[in-house]
Amino acid sequence: MEFSLICPNDGQVDLGLEDITAVSFRDQETVEVSFQCPECGEVIRAVLRVPNMLMAAMELAKFAESEGVGDESASAEYAGAYGSAEERAERDRLEESYCEYFRRQLSHIECVEDLLAEIDCP
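The chain above was modelled as a monomer; its predicted structure follows.
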């Protein structure tokens, strides 16, 4: 998944998941994602409205709990094997559905003004 944001030093830059440095949940429907500019290292922040984020977070927590993520006795096994092929396929399907949601939400953003309108800034 890639994002295009405006860096104050380098202009428009393409950012990927590897450029994310932090994710902060502001409220039930707002998340702030911090990226590091691959050109200059500047921190670029995007505040996104995510309807039903609380429900999505609860689903992810339930999924993590059922997979034993965070359980120290299961973490080594989970990290090494990542589950069966069917479990991996299901995780990939879930991840792709969340990525597709963000792609659709951000597809119309072409400039800073569009981003500010998306995050309801005056």
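The helical segments are 53-67, 72-81, 85-106, 112-118.
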